[in-house]
Design goal:
The protein has one helix spanning 72-81, and strands at residues 2-5, 11-16, 23-28, 33-38, 45-50, 53-58, 63-70. The longest helix has 10 residues, at 72-81. The chain is mainly β. Strands 1, 2, 3, 4, 5, 6 and 7 form a seven-stranded mixed sheet that branches. The protein is built from one helix and seven strands; from the N terminus they run βββββββα. The protein has one domain. Helices cover 10% and strands 43% of the residues. A hairpin with a 2-residue loop joins β5 and β6 (53-58). The N and C termini lie far apart (65 Å).
Length: 97
Amino acid sequence: MISAVSKKTKMETINISEKKEKIKWDYDAEADVLYISFGNPQNAEGVDIGEGTIVRVQTDTNEITGLTIINPLHRTLKSLSGKQPVRHKKKVSTATK
């Protein structure tokens, strides 16, 4: 278990499953979003903890069911290079006859 600060700045206990074999992830390269689920993905409340990270919490059990990390590749490249990475747009070809 870990403690987290709620919006009311009161400490609340939330649970993290220790069933590591049930961690699932999916990366959306086009949107640069990493989804991590502890067990099967399920409906949960998203709590924005800042810096592009959203914690998914099951409200009735206070169990963390997953994480959503926004722009992980972009932020990693920026951190490694010390500057803003260039995003390349996909080339679209148009055929004319």
